[in-house]
Design a protein that fits this description.
Blueprint (H helix, E strand, L loop, with lengths): L4 E5 L4 H12 L3 E6 L8 H5 L6 E5 L5 H11 L3 E4 L6 H4 L3 H22 L4 E7 L22 H20 L3 E6 L2 E2 L8 H13 L6 E3 L5 E2 L2 E2 H12 L7 E3 L5 E2 H11 L8 E3 L17 H7 L8 H17 L1 H9 L3
The structure holds NADP nicotinamide-adenine-dinucleotide phosphate and guanosine-5'-diphosphate-alpha-D-mannose (GDD).
NADP nicotinamide-adenine-dinucleotide phosphate (NAP) binds next to α1 and β5.
């Protein structure tokens, strides 16, 4: 028998796959909400070997009916809302879609919970991006928000609405303010994965240069596998609250390059080229989180995966992917 039932939106994304794996290991019956696309997109679930353990439900975050149908059919105890247009760069080109999915999407879930079963607990994926160019470093739960992108503005709206439904209707709804977290299954458009993937290709003679934008930006990078535990811990507390999840350390994009190329016996300066095409209309300079509240109240461990180990894990996975494409391709071939 299963302990509890959980619905995860954004199941095809990085965090969706890690969270599904984690909840299955905790004895949950896991339902994964995915949006229909012309090409199936479950490779991350195969990569972590969890696809066989979950039940998939079609949901589009801009479609209230699909959200209602999914929630009423799977009757979850907990919902984890991870679905989003999550790429900050693209939010400048698709501000309205970003607002619909990453902002209004959670209101559709909240209202369904309120009307259908107010006992369902909700986790909302808030983000350190909401701090924007705050001059306060490190940032904690009390640091004022200054969103600097359409993505951050949409997420901040979602953040406040979650809080409002908690206060107005007594829902058990929590927001995790997660700082950047990465892994071997991170999307290729994000800077860490772009660096490790290209560095591996350069090492093997498959590529010559790595074109990047702002090398000075600093981020607090952790491992996604550690961060999904915090999402679950938030929903196991006696009362709902919001928590910052971060390692407490920040590094620049340049430093990330140095460690990644160094891992391959190469020097980043020989390959990295700054290309204005990748510089954003407005960028966030320095994110570094203070997760002491989560450590104190959730017992969450911020030191589980150090920065150098994270970079090494990603570089090795990308090297292996290009050295043994057959091993990697099997995750794609499984669902064709
Ligand atoms: P991700 O890999 O980009 O995954 C996003 C997921 O949302 C994908 O499954 C995507 O489906 C789904 N999605 C997008 N639009 C949708 C729509 N209209 N309807 C239904 N599903 C839709 O993101 P992630 O890194 O796993 O992040 C998970 C969540 O945490 C996101 O909300 C993100 O904004 C937030 N967050 C992430 C970080 C981080 O550093 N990773 C930090 C703070 C907060 P497709 O596969 O079909 O595109
Ligand atoms: N993507 C990308 N590509 N970023 C680059 C590049 C490049 O070629 N060159 C420099 N950067 C800089 C960006 O300008 C930014 O300052 C930094 O690298 C990190 O960019 P991303 O990896 O795209 O992540 P992000 O910090 O903008 O957003 C991620 O973290 C947020 C949490 O703070 C995403 O996962 C968001 O969904 C998440 O909310």
């Amino acid at each position: 028998m299963f302990n509890k039932r959980a619905l995860i939106t954004g199941i095809t994304g990085q965090d969706g796959a890690y969270l599904a794996k984690f909840l299955v290991s905790k004895g949950y019956k896991v339902f994964g909400a995915y949006r229909r696309s012309s090409t199936r997109n479950f490779w991350r679930l195969h990569y972590l070997d969890v696809k066989k353990d979950i039940e998939l439900l079609p949901v589009d975050m801009i479609d209230q009916t699909s959200i209602m149908q999914a929630i009423s059919s799977c009757e979850p105890d907990e919902i984890y809302n991870l679905a989003a247009q999550s790429f900050v760069g693209d939010s400048f080109m698709e501000p309205i879609a970003t607002g619909e999915i990453s902002g209004l999407g959670v209101v559709r879930i909240l209202d369904t919970i309120r009307l259908l079963n107010p006992k369902i607990k909700l986790y909302q994926a808030s983000t350190s991006e909401m701090y924007g160019n705050s001059t306060i470093v490190p940032q904690n739960e009390d640091t004022p928000f200054q969103p600097s992108s359409p993505y951050a503005a949409a997420k901040l709206y979602a953040h406040w609405v979650v809080r409002n439904y908690r206060e107005a209707y007594g829902l058990f709804a929590c927001s995790g303010i997660l700082f950047n977290h990465e892994s071997p299954i991170r999307g290729i458009e994000f800077v860490t994965k772009k660096i490790t993937d290209t560095a591996a290709r350069i090492k093997l003679g498959l590529s010559e240069k790595l074109h990047l934008g702002n090398l000075e930006a600093k981020r607090d990078w952790g491992f996604a596998g550690d961060y999904v535990k915090a999402m679950w811990l938030m929903l196991q507390q006696p009362t709902p609250d919001d928590f910052v999840i971060a390692t407490g350390e920040s590094h620049s994009v340049q430093e990330f390059c140095d460690v990644a190329f160094g891992e391959l016996g190469l020097q980043a300066k020989d390959y990295v080229v700054v290309d204005q095409k990748f510089v954003r209309p407005r960028d966030v300079a320095h994110l570094q989180g203070d997760s002491s509240k989560a450590q104190r109240m959730l017992g969450w461990n911020q030191k589980e995966t150090p920065f150098s180990e994270l970079v090494r894990m990603m570089v090795r996975a990308d090297l292996e992917k290009y050295q043994h494409p057959d091993r990697f391709m099997k995750h794609f071939l499984k669902h064709i």
